[in-house]
UniProtKB/TrEMBL annotation:
Organism, as annotated: Haloarcula nitratireducens
Protein name per UniProt: NAD(P)/FAD-dependent oxidoreductase
InterPro entries named in the record: FAD/NAD-bd_sf, Geranylgeranyl_reductase
Any coiled-coil regions, as ranges: none
Domain of life: Archaea
Length: 404
């Protein structure tokens, strides 16, 4: 009699939960390991969840889904100074998006998995040394431990990741009636943005993120200044978290699966997230479900290429549009936001074809964007897979951050 194949999922956040869900549904004997306890876990990065239908929970407040998101408002400014000027506004529909209490969503999903027979091990941190023991003891190990991943630490290769974004998030109580029930993103002529994801008229997830090249010396002070100039209640340090987000693709896709150890990396551990918006929840869930599907078909060797193929169009569009934040061209960026207004917010990130069709309806703007030699160079580099991870110096580890 054939034995049921066994899987260890390391990391119990959204990517790990999705992996456990998919693998259990496909007949694997799954054990999930989370280094914290869910009832004490404080995480609020990514609380505006798009493609929410992929999460197998009833969309209720009890499960962490506070309210459906009607529209995402996006505003572009030419700087952070007091006399700044708005260069463009857009309103984007959100047909499958919810503003959430992420810690409650994760707790509810872990409870669902436990009720269905997944062995959920809370408050269980796995060391790099133990990873190889797990690889010997399970048929498959899923690494969902973030960037840099446990696999990188075990292989002493944390420098294999090419870059990241830094984000601060806080659950803030105060007057958000001018935003609610929508949410708002504000771009201010640096590579990054601020946001307010309103949960009620008096509570919101507020945050700010930067590319490493644009991060300030004092994160918290910059966060508070951003809230002040945008008219939002200020966060407290005690309620603020800092997160590291991959600049996808920040890891060579071929390193997302290690056949010698049967280790597959998903979500942030696989170096996938949108390098323009920093959004990574729906991408993480997609990667986990794909890994589960291929594991069930005994085809995990196909995972690196298939995941990259599915993500590549998103990477390409993000690197093109990010050019205009890196080169400080808020006028073109503002026009692009206005041109895209009315699209679904998930499509803006994940359906480049739809974005290109929308931009093509504005021929002058289309030429302003794609008529630049350096933009065309980025298109060529992305199309030919020339990403930053191909030129990381040996021994360099860019994942160092202690400014919070």
């Amino acid at each position: 009699m054939n034995q049921t194949p066994t899987v260890a999922v390391l990391g119990g956040a959204m990517a790990g939960l999705a992996a456990a869900e998919g693998l259990h549904s496909d007949g694997f004997d799954v054990e999930l390991y989370e280094r914290q306890t869910y009832n004490e876990k404080r995480v609020n990065c990514g609380e505006a969840m798009t493609a929410a239908s992929a999460i197998p929970l009833e969309k209720t407040a009890e499960n962490g889904f506070i309210n459906p998101l009607p529209e995402m408002e996006v505003e572009v400014y030419d700087g952070v100074q007091s006399d700044r000027q708005c260069t463009g506004r857009g309103r984007f529909t959100a047909s499958d998006a919810y503003i959430t209490d992420r810690n409650v969503v994760e707790q509810s999903w872990a409870d669902r998995l436990a009720q269905r027979g997944v062995d959920v091990n809370e408050n269980r941190s796995i060391t790099p040394t133990e990873l190889f023991e797990f690889a010997d003891g399970y048929d498959v190990v899923v690494d969902a431990t973030g960037q840099p991943s446990l696999t990188s630490k075990a292989l002493q290769s944390t420098g294999e990741y090419s870059g990241y974004l830094v984000a601060l998030n806080a659950d803030v109580v105060g007057d958000f009636s001018d935003v609610y029930p929508n949410s708002r993103i504000i771009l201010e002529n640096y590579t990054g943005y601020t946001w307010a994801f309103s949960k009620t008229p008096n509570r919101a997830n507020v945050g700010i993120g930067w590319a490493v090249s644009d991060r300030p010396d004092d994160y918290m002070a910059a966060f508070k200044r951003a809230c002040e100039r945008n008219g939002w209640p200020e966060p407290t340090r005690e309620r603020t978290n800092v997160a590291i987000i991959p600049e996808g693709p920040s890891l060579d896709p071929q390193r997302t699966y290690h056949p010698d150890y049967s280790i597959v990396r998903v979500g942030d551990a696989a170096g996938i997230a949108n390098r323009l918006t920093g959004k990574g929840i729906s991408q993480a869930i997609q990667s986990s479900y794909l890994a589960a599907e291929l594991a069930a078909e005994n085809r995990l060797e196909a995972y690196p290429e298939q995941l990259y193929r599915e993500m590549k169009p998103e990477y390409l569009l993000a690197t093109v549009i990010r050019y205009f934040t890196e080169t400080r061209q808020p006028q073109i960026l503002g026009k692009a936001i206005q041109a895209g207004s009315g699209m679904d917010i998930e499509a803006v990130d994940r359906s480049p074809r739809d974005v290109l069709i929308q931009l093509a309806r504005h021929p002058r703007l289309f030429v302003q964007i794609f008529g630049k030699r350096k933009v065309l160079q980025r298109v060529y580099q992305a199309a030919t897979d020339q990403w930053e991870y191909t030129s990381i110096p040996d021994g360099e580890s860019p994942i160092v951050d202690s400014s919070f």
